[in-house]
Amino acid sequence: MIRHAVEQLRDASSYIHAHMRENPNNEFDFLAAKACDLIQWVVYHALTNVTNPVGLDLLTETARQVGQIDVFTLNHDLLIEKQFAKEGLKCSDGFGKKQ
Length: 99
Description:
This protein has two domains: 1-37, no CATH class; 50-92, no CATH class. It has five helices and no strands. It has helices at residues 3-12, 14-17, 27-48, 57-66, 77-86. The protein is elongated, with a radius of gyration of 20 Å. It starts with a helix and ends in a 13-residue tail after the last helix.
């Protein structure tokens, strides 16, 4: 169903991945992986500059009422960490020491 669109995309983008030889047998997969890296990079840098998260009050109120919550995110944990800091709540990113 999407074969034609994928072929068009592959042909239209061939100049981008023509010289990428990390996986010479599957340049299109390599390009898709790089596109995912770009999206993650853009999301990270866009969220890093947010100083006053909006719309996360439910999380902080839940954390206050319950005492502890576990939240699993992609890069949006940056917003949650800033929200918790703003509200004076301790949090752990799961990689450092538990607070």
